[in-house]
C-alpha cells in the first residue's frame, strides 16, 4: 500500500552551519550529512541547539554562516514553503473545527493537488486511523492526535520529514508504541527522517544513526550500538546510558593494550578502544559489563578486577538490579545485574569485588580536567513539565 505513496527521501547536508543569536552562539560550525532514506536522530540535552538546527533546515531561521543542501540542491536562501520539508512539532496543533480527514487534506487542497481526500485517506490508513476520519481532533486521544499530525505531514510527501520531539507529550507506554509505528512508517515510505529528541532510549531504538549534540556541536555520531559500546567523550558516555569512569595515568602503552594506574589499581584497556595512549586519561566501563564477586577473584589475563568495595545501595527495577558499590580511592561504581534468581545476589553492606573483560573497557578523548559539562537529563517528562510551566509563566507575564 505504502509503495505507491512515497517519493524517495533526499539527502540532507549541513555544511559549516553557524547560528548566532544576538549575544549567543547556538550552533558552531556544524557539518552533517544525512543519507536519503535514513532515520537520523539528533540527541542532546535541553538548549544544545536541536530545535535551532531543525528550524534552519526548515527555513524558519537563516544561518549566520554555512550552507544547507537537500537532495544536492542548495536551499540556504530558499523560502520555507519552497523546501521539500515538513515538520511535526511537539505541540501538534490540529485545526479543532475540521475533521481529522480535513486536517490531513488541508495542505493538499491549498496546493491544489489532485484527489486530496483520496490521498488523505491513504495517509490515515498508514497511521491506522482511517476509521476515525470523520471525527474532530477533540474526540481523539493524545496519541491519536499525534498520529493525525504525522499523517498530515507525511501526506505532503516531503523528501525530508523533521520531527521535533513529536512524542514528548505522550505517556511512556504510548511513546514506546508510537516509536515502533513511526519507525515502521519511515521504512514503509522510505522518506528521510530527522528526529530530534533528548530521550536517549528513543534515539537508540528508532534511529539508524544517532548524533549526540552538546552545546551546538556534534560530539559523536554513529550507529546506536557503536555509540553505546564505544563512547569517545565523557559527555557521550554519560548522556547515552550510564558509565563508570576512572581517571589515572598510563603506565604501560603496549601494542594490544594500555595499562592505566588508577589510584594504585591497574586497569587494562584495549589500545584500539582507547582514544589516548599516554599521560593522564579517563577510562570507563558500562555498568552491565561488571560482574560482582563476593571473594577476590583469581587474577586472570584479559580480566580487570577492582575491589574490595562495599555495596551501599541495592535497587530492584524488575528485569535488573542496580548495585552501587563504594570502592576506596576509586569512588562509586554502578553495577547492573540481570535478575536471574529471586532476590538480590548480594545485600546492602556486603563486601564485593568487581570484574570485567578487558575488551569491554573504553578510553576517552577528554582532558580529565574538563569534568562533566552537563548533568544527564533522561527524565523526559520532567522536562516537558518544566517547559509547560515556563510557557504558562510567559503567558501570564504577557
Ligand atoms: N531567538 C533566539 N534568540 C536568542 N537565543 C535563542 C533563540 N532561539 C534559541 N536560542 C538559544 O539557543 C540555544 C539552543 O536553543 P534550541 O531551541 O535549539 O535548544 P534545544 O536543543 O531544542 O533544546 P530543548 O531540548 O529544550 O528543546 C538555547 O540556549 C536558546 O536559549
Ligand atoms: Mg527544542
Explain what you see.
The protein has 398 residues and is α+β, with helices and mostly antiparallel strands. The protein has two domains: 2-226, 3-Layer(aba) Sandwich (Rossmann fold), CATH 3.40.50.300; 234-370, Nucleic acid-binding proteins (OB fold (Dihydrolipoamide Acetyltransferase, E2P)), CATH 2.40.50. It is 25% helix and 33% strand. The chain has nine helices and 20 strands. It has helices at residues 50-58, 100-110, 116-126, 142-154, 172-189, 200-206, 224-229, 234-239, 380-397; strands at residues 12-21, 24-34, 39-43, 65-70, 73-74, 85-88, 160-164, 192-197, 209-214, 217-222, 244-253, 257-262, 265-270, 280-285, 291-293, 303-316, 320-327, 331-338, 351-357, 362-363. The strands form four sheets. It has a six-stranded mixed beta sheet with strand order 6-7-8-3-9-10, sandwiched between helices. A five-stranded antiparallel beta sheet has the order 13-12-11-14-20, with no helix packed on it. A five-stranded antiparallel beta sheet has the order 15-19-16-17-18, with no helix packed on it. The longest helix is centred in the middle third of the chain and has 18 residues, at 172-189. It is elongated and about 75 Å long. The model is unreliable at 1-6 and 371-385 (pLDDT under 50). Bound molecules: adenosine-5'-triphosphate and magnesium ion. Adenosine-5'-triphosphate binds at residues 21, 24, 26, 44, 46-52, 198.
Amino acid at each position: 500500500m505504502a509503495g505507491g505513496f512515497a517519493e524517495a527521501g533526499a539527502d540532507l547536508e549541513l555544511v559549516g552551519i553557524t547560528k548566532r543569536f544576538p549575544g549567543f552562539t547556538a550552533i558552531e560550525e556544524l557539518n552533517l550529512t544525512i543519507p536519503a532514506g535514513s532515520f537520523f536522530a539528533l540527541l542532546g540535552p535541553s538548549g544544545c541547539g536541536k530545535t535551532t538546527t531543525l528550524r534552519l533546515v526548515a527555513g524558519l531561521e537563516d544561518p549566520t554562516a554555512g550552507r544547507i543542501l537537500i537532495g544536492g540542491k542548495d536551499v540556504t536562501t530558499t523560502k520555507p514553503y519552497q523546501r521539500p520539508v515538513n515538520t511535526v512539532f511537539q505541540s501538534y496543533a490540529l485545526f479543532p473545527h475540521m475533521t481529522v480527514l480535513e486536517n490531513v487534506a488541508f495542505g493538499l487542497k491549498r496546493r491544489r493537488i489532485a484527489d486530496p481526500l483520496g490521498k488523505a485517506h491513504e495517509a490515515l490508513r498508514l497511521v491506522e486511523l482511517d476509521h476515525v476520519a470523520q471525527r474532530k481532533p477533540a474526540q481523539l486521544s493524545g496519541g491519536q492526535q499525534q498520529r493525525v499530525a504525522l499523517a498530515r505531514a507525511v501526506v505532503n510527501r516531503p523528501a525530508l520529514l523533521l520531527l521535533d520531539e513529536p512524542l514528548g507529550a505522550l505517556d511512556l507506554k504510548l511513546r514506546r508504541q508510537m516509536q515502533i509505528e513511526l519507525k515502521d512508517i519511515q521504512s514503509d515510505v522510505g522518506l528521510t527522517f530527522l528526529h530530534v529528541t533528548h530521550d536517549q532510549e528513543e534515539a537508540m531504538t528508532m534511529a539508524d544513526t544517532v548524533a549526540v549534540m552538546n552545546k551546538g556541536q556534534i560530539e559523536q555520531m554513529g550507529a546506536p550500538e557503536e555509540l553505546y559500546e564505544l563512547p569517545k567523550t565523557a559527555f557521550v558516555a554519560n548522556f547515552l546510558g550510564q558509565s563508570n569512569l576512572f581517571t589515572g595515568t598510563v603506565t604501560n602503552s603496549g601494542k594490544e593494550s594500555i595499562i592505566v594506574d588508577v589510584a594504585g589499581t591497574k586497569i587494562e584497556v584495549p589500545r584500539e578502544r582507547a582514544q589516548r595512549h599516554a599521560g593522564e586519561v579517563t577510562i570507563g566501563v558500562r555498568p552491565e559489563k561488571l560482574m560482582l564477586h563476593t571473594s577476590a577473584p583469581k587474577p586472570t589475563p584479559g580480566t580487570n578486577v577492582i575491589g574490595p568495595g562495599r555495596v551501599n545501595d541495592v535497587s530492584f527495577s524488575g528485569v535488573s538490579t542496580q548495585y552501587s558499590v563504594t570502592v576506596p580511592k576509586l569512588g562509586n561504581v554502578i553495577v547492573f545485574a540481570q535478575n536471574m534468581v529471586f532476590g538480590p545476589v548480594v545485600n546492602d553492606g556486603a563486601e564485593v569485588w568487581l570484574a570485567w573483560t578487558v575488551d569491554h573497557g573504553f578510553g576517552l578523548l577528554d582532558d580529565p580536567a574538563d569534568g562533566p559539562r552537563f548533568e544527564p537529563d533522561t527524565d523526559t517528562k520532567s522536562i516537558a513539565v518544566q517547559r509547560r510551566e515556563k510557557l504558562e509563566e510567559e503567558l501570564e507575564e504577557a
